[in-house]
């Protein structure tokens, strides 16, 4: 293996998911095309062009039941930041819900937030050496 390219995320609606991830979390749309009967949507952070979220529309009842629960209550992904306090304040001002406020110790700082479907993400500031 060479690298990680995409993380697959089940969504209820492409447009509402795109709006959340772009306006609240700062992602950008890399791909938004129709491939036959399906829509193909990839989002990425501008600072990390090689890794993206591949949004997949939940189509079956089983898939719809997993939206927001793909990891069975565990965090879906971890984001790193150089300034947890500033990012926390910015995300809160945009309406992002934090389920764990920032906590700091000798290992750095950590906070947990959820997306529009309840998927949990971790935001970490590593200590400076």
From TrEMBL:
InterPro entries under this entry? Glyas_Bleomycin-R_OHBP_Dase, Glyas_Fos-R_dOase_dom, VOC_core
Q: Which domain of life is it from?
A: Bacteria
SUPFAM superfamilies, sorted = Glyoxalase/Bleomycin resistance protein/Dihydroxybiphenyl dioxygenase
Question: Which Pfam families would you find in this protein's record?
Answer: Glyoxalase
Q: Which residues form the VOC domain?
A: 3-126
Q: What is this protein called?
A: Glyoxalase
